[in-house]
Design brief:
Layout (H helix, E strand, L loop, with lengths): L3 H18 L15 E3 L4 E2 L6 H16 L3 E2 L7 E11 L2 E4 L5 E16 L4 E15 L10 H21 L3
Parallel strand pairs: 1-3, 1-4, 2-4
Antiparallel strand pairs: 4-6, 5-6, 6-7
Helix pairs in contact: 2-3
């Protein structure tokens, strides 16, 4: 049985060890490398999909602006930068109706993206990131009913993933 002093010592030791083991966690996002500003120049487009680069750039700027954990600024004022290229835009048929006509499509967008700390000239992360959405030719089920709607959602999902990787470091 532990004495009162021994018990207090064990409690303090346990608290110290717990604090030390969690010391790598904090309120400052690990992924962004201590930066508070980001530049998002217009992406390149290696697909045949007109305007995909602008739509993705706009979605990223909107996502970062709405989140407000990093301020979007011009490149000459930025501590970090997100660069990339849209490498795939697809719209395959997912299902057909009884007559053999397409019923549902999936819009899929893939971009190769790099996040760089401009102060250290270090690439913090680099990855192919994907966004997608499904739409139906008819308004059954109340979901998305056009390629334009699905395209917007796909770019938004991709931008959310980029924000998460950048701000949360996951």
């Amino acid at each position: 049985m532990l004495s009162r002093k021994s018990g207090a010592f064990v409690a303090v030791l346990a608290a110290a060890l717990a604090a030390q083991s969690c010391s790598h966690y904090g309120f400052s996002p690990a992924g962004r490398g201590g930066t508070s500003t980001v530049a998002i120049p217009i992406f390149a487009n290696e697909t045949l999909e007109y305007g995909a680069e602008q739509d993705l750039t706009d979605a990223l700027i909107e996502e970062f602006t709405d989140d407000n954990s990093m301020r979007v600024v011009p490149e000459e004022e930025a501590e970090s930068i997100i660069r990339g290229v849209v490498i795939a835009y697809e719209r395959p048929v997912l299902s057909y109706d009884a007559g053999g006509s397409p019923r549902e499509y999936r819009v899929r967008v893939v971009a190769r993206i790099a996040y760089e700390n401009l102060s250290t000239k270090e690439t913090v992360w680099e990855a192919d990131v994907e966004g997608w959405a499904i739409y139906a030719v008819t308004a059954e089920g109340g979901g998305l009913t056009s390629e334009d709607e699905a395209r917007e959602v796909a770019f938004e999902k991709l931008a959310q993933d980029v924000l998460s990787k950048t701000v949360q470091g996951w």
